[in-house]
């Protein structure tokens, strides 16, 4: 990567910006204002472009379909675009206004229909909605209708009471002299009364039922009209959707070019740009700029300072590309660091597959990730990585002989599968004396055990610790290489090789103390002291503080086995403790058993995806990367390059 400075007269600024934008080779570094050099001012067209872009983005946001192929027509000039966009926006505004007015009228009429139906159900006319001088009127809904009429008449014998049932609930109408208003209010409130809010009726309606029917006909016609409005809007979108998408992209580029000078240094008559270009593209960039400005431009190669944040280009093979997602999620490698994406390509699917490790679960998750891959284009990097992880899960599922948590089937089922499908199942006698057919496997996660120094442990946990030892030490080796490149061999030796010496000392002290090797534990302790001194020289106090962490980092990989054991344990509970008892009862209980299996395994699959995903990331980000990776890199973003979503 080459750091360069471009200096030229302001008269050539626009043409040079155009060239830089079209080449897409230059990573622009923003200028910070100094006493000598101010920041530049945008082009005079920037404000007008921004205003039009805002209008176009509003049109874009209103598109229901944002996947139209871009319009093929050439965009000739800003004025042409401005006129056409204004015309499109005005037409859309008019259509939307008509639609909005129709919706408003429909809403008002539907509200009126509800009120008319209420009056019709109570067999009263619109006079009930008008205020009276001598009468208090109560018309609305109640939550409890029991004894309303009785209680009202006990307190106001001359009261008029109507009760009816509608789709809105139980409605009542009570008319009493004003003197009884307070007591009737309390009675109705005790029954959950809610007063109807009346609209002003323009005229007296003697028959609310007939009026409601007429309004329903009117609403039906208006809804048909609303459908026509929707069709007109759809036609409008189909006609101009592709154009809007193309214009939005074009204006975004024009805005970027017009506003670019605010990232430059500037004097009264000249400007200066700093940035980065790939070393192999430097001559191409230089020749193009000199041709554009007719040699009236000065291009200077600058030295790279230690404080410079050199932008990076992640250049990985196509099958590693998806795993760049995990680096973007964490932090990008700095300029002189190695890119761990290639390592993630191997270890992330391996860890995920080891933890999930079930043929059935692997197939289901692979199908799920494949469907999501088609449905979610922006997440394809992550989903491609997860599809590979699901395939590795299937591989480990065959190794462990696990199929939706089943490691074996009954004698009857197994015999049928062997005779009809010719599957390589083998007979096995369980501890309870039951004869079953087991699926072929290299090892059983639930049953396989190892004895170490007199203690028996599940083999899968021991395998996790061994993987941890290898993975952590690989990280230390990579850290050694990074330190050699960055700070030289001496610093790398004390900062990283000392960890290997520390591990050797711990091993000698432990094995010597147990009498497993012909060495005194004191020798091992001496090696530990030597390693601690080396660490202090290489990494200072921080190195000494991190000494206990090396063992916890390695033991943290026990989760590779523990997460898998919990998953298969839950699957066994679902199969044998929850579903099997119902299955054995037969009949309708089989349906219950099937439902338990489906729901239970769906939950376990969800946990089986979330757990391995998070634990695998944690092992990389915390235990592995801490040994060699610092990150903090800046992505090379070429001026003029379209921004891509992850």
Please give a handful of descriptors for the protein shown.
646 residues; alpha+beta; six-stranded antiparallel sheet; four-stranded antiparallel sheet; flat
Care to describe what's here?
- Helix 13 packs across helix 17 (about 550-555).
- The radius of gyration is 38 Å and the shape is flat.
- Among the domains are: about 1-70 and about 240-300, no CATH class; about 105-220, Alpha-Beta Plaits (2-Layer Sandwich); about 410-445, no CATH class.
- Strands 1, 2, 3, 8, 9 and 10 form a six-stranded antiparallel sheet that branches. A four-stranded antiparallel sheet has the order 5-6-4-7, with helices on both faces.
- The relative contact order is 0.11.
- A hairpin with a 5-residue loop joins strand 13 (about 425-430) and strand 14.
- By secondary structure, the chain is α+β, with helices and mostly antiparallel strands.
- It has helices spanning about 15-25, 45-60, 80-120, 150-155, 180-190, 210-260, 280-290, 325-330, 340-355, 360-375, 380-400, 410-420, 460-485, 490-515, 520-540, 540-545, 550-555, 560-585, 590-625; strands spanning about 1-10, 25-30, 40, 135-140, 160-165, 170-175, 195, 265, 270-275, 300, 310, 410, 425-430, 435-440, 450, 455-460, 635.
- It has 19 helices and 17 strands.
- The longest helix is centred in the middle third of the chain and has 52 residues, at about 210-260.
Topology overview:
Blueprint: E1 2-9, H1 13-23, E2 26-29, E3 38-39, H2 46-62, H3 78-121, E4 135-142, H4 148-155, E5 160-166, E6 169-177, H5 181-190, E7 194-195, H6 208-259, E8 265-266, E9 270-277, H7 282-292, E10 298-302, E11 311-312, H8 324-329, H9 341-356, H10 359-375, H11 380-400, E12 408-410, H12 411-421, E13 426-429, E14 435-438, E15 449-452, E16 455-458, H13 459-487, H14 489-513, H15 521-539, H16 541-545, H17 549-555, H18 559-585, H19 589-624, E17 634-635
Parallel strand pairs: 11-17
Antiparallel strand pairs: 1-9, 1-10, 2-9, 3-8, 4-6, 4-7, 5-6, 8-9, 12-14, 13-14, 15-16
């Amino acid at each position: 990567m080459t750091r360069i400075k471009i200096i030229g007269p302001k008269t050539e600024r626009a043409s040079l910006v155009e060239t830089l934008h079209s080449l897409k080779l230059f990573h622009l570094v923003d200028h910070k204002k100094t006493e000598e050099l101010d920041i530049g001012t945008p082009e005079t067209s920037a404000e007008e472009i921004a205003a039009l872009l805002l209008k176009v983005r509003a049109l874009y946001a209103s598109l229901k379909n944002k996947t139209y192929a871009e319009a093929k027509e050439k965009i000739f000039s800003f004025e042409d675009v401005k006129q056409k966009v204004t015309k499109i926006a005005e037409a859309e505004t008019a259509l939307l206004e008509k639609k909005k007015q129709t919706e408003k009228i429909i809403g008002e009429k539907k509200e009126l229909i509800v009120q008319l139906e209420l009056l019709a159900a109570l067999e009263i006319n619109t006079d009930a909605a008008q205020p009276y001088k001598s009468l208090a009127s109560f018309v609305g809904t109640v939550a409890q209708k029991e004894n309303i009429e009785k209680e009202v008449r006990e307190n106001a014998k001359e009261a008029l009471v109507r009760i009816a049932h509608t789709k809105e609930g139980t409605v009542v109408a009570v008319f009493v002299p004003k003197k009884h208003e307070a007591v009737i209010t309390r009675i109705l409130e005790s029954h959950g009364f809610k007063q109807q809010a009346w609209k002003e009726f323009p005229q007296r309606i003697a028959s609310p039922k007939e009026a409601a029917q007429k309004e329903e006909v009117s609403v039906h016609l208006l809804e048909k009209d609303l459908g026509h409005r929707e069709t007109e809007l759809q036609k409008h979108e189909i006609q101009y959707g592709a154009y809007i998408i193309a214009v939005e992209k074009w204006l975004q580029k024009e805005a970027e070019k017009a506003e670019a000078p605010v990232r430059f240094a500037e004097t009264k008559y000249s400007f200066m740009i700093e940035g980065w270009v790939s070393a192999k593209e430097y001559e191409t960039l230089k020749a193009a700029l000199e041709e554009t400005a007719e040699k009236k431009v000065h291009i200077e190669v600058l030295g790279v300072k230690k404080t410079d944040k050199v932008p990076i280009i992640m250049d990985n093979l196509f099958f590693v590309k998806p795993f760049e997602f995990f680096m973007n999620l964490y932090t990008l490698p700095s300029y002189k660091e190695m890119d761990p994406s290639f390592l993630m390509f191997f270890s992330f699917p391996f860890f995920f597959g080891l933890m999930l490790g079930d043929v059935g679960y692997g197939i289901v998750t692979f199908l799920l990730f494949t469907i999501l891959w088609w449905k979610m284009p922006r997440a394809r990097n992550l989903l491609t990585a997860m599809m590979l992880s699901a395939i590795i899960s299937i591989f480990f599922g065959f190794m462990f002989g696990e199929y939706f948590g089943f490691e074996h089937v009954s004698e009857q089922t197994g015999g049928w599968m062997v005779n009809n499908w010719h599957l390589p199942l083998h007979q096995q006698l369980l501890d309870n004396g039951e004869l079953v057919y087991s699926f072929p496997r290299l090892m059983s996660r639930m049953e396989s055990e190892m004895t170490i120094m007199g203690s028996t442990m599940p083999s899968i946990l021991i395998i996790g610790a061994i993987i941890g030892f290898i993975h952590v030490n690989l990280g230390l080796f990579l850290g050694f290489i990074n330190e050699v490149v960055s700070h030289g061999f001496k610093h790398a030796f004390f900062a990283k090789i000392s960890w290997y010496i520390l591990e050797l000392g711990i091993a000698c002290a432990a094995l010597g103390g147990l009498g497993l090797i012909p060495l005194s534990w004191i020798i091992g302790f001496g090696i530990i002291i030597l390693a601690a001194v080396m660490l202090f020289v290489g990494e200072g106090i921080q190195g000494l503080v991190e000494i206990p962490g090396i063992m916890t980092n390695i033991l943290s990989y026990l989760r590779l086995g523990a997460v898998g054991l919990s998953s298969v344990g839950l699957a066994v509970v679902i199969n044998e403790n929850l579903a099997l008892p119902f299955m054995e009862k037969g009949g309708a209980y089989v349906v219950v058993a099937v439902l338990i299996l489906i729901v239970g395994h769906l939950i376990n699959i969800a946990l089986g995806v979330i757990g391995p995903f998070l634990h695998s990331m944690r092992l990389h980000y915390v235990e592995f990367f801490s040994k060699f990776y610092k990150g903090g890199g800046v992505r090379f973003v070429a001026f003029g390059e379209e921004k891509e979503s992850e």
